[in-house]
Specification:
Helix content: 40-55%
Structural class: alpha/beta
Order of helices and strands: HHEEEHHHHEEEHEHEHHHHHHHHHH
Number of helices: 18
Number of domains: 3
Strand content: 5-15%
CATH superfamily of the largest domain: Ribonuclease H-like superfamily/Ribonuclease H
Radius of gyration: 28 Å
Number of strands: 8
Distance between the termini: 33 Å
CATH architecture of the largest domain: 2-Layer Sandwich
CATH topology of the largest domain: Nucleotidyltransferase, domain 5
Strand order of the largest sheet: 6-5-4-7-8
Shape: elongated
Amino acid sequence: MNIDDAQSNMDSYLRNPVAEASTARLHDGHRCGPAGSYSRRGANTVLRLRCLDCPDQPRFSTDPLSTHSQLFPWVSRYRDDIAMNVINAYVDGRMSYRGLSLNSLGGNKVSSATAYRWVKAAAHQCKSPLEASTELQPVWGGSLQLDAFHVSVEGCARWAFLTLDSETQDIPHARVLRNERDPRRIAKMCIELRDVLHYRPKIIVVDGNPSVLKAVRSIYPSVPIQLCVWHKEQTINKILPNRKINANQRELKVKIHEFLCANTLNEADTAYQFLIENSLIWPEKKSQNAIISLNRDRESLLAHFYVDAKFGLTEEKRAPRTTSVTEGTISRFRLKLHQVHGFKSFENLPGLLNLLFMHHRAVPFRSGRDKRSPLQRAQRPVDNWLLFSQRKSNNETDRQV
């Protein structure tokens, strides 16, 4: 279409706007007026129209090859499949906005600015893990893990605090906190987990953060709490660093490792009794501090054995003793957030995290024996995670980016 053809079509629209708008499948039955034109890449000039009957008089293209997006109608003139491919490519991998603009996605190329608008729009409308869990009501296993990771916003630290079900690797609830050492905020999350989602864990695994312990014990007083044995071993390593200990203290660390990594309760009790009865073998202050630390947290370090016995859990499905599942999940989120290099505005952080969480929950894993997604394991599969993640709203002002 050249300039003359575009002018001819403009006259046609003015003569019969309803019929022409129906041809473009946009704003059926509305009066439309001219709103300029643009040139398609390497092709013809395309006319743009303005809907005269809509309050904000939105503009749209008359190009029959371009279908207006139903997913993001307020920011995009591309088809939904193109927008979803771009958002998937951004969330799923380590590709930047510039990388998306340089790569052809399904035969279509978009600018980095367009990709940014799509991701931002999807993040703005994305449901939180609590909203998605309330709607889906997944069937979780009951082994709850709590952990947080650091995110930089305007040069200040923020903490993405998440809860994870060990059996399904699903994320029932997550929230951005200003401080990971605020037990009131963490307790509020636990209350929502208990009262809104009706999550009743049989064991809770934490890394030893005092604020998390305080919050969890106040909300779930009767649930056994398991301290992560890996974090406990790291604490022992700080007390007795390998580069500053003698042979006698190395033997102590071996005995502590036998206690932490015992396969049965009897093995753990045997290793513990040996440490207590022979504590005078290690008279150094640091060695005594390590033994005292172990003695103080003994019950919490052995909680997984008692839960196995109570619920009859076998080797294939034992209660967790570490937060390794949560640490592995967080490491995947960090890969993407490391590429972002921090956020200039706090308003962009929760939405992007919600997208990452929803993608993790609904997309099947690529590795491991069980490649089902967390929601599939929780008996609540989602066909299209991106469509499901978007909130339903009739208020256009709520959807502005």
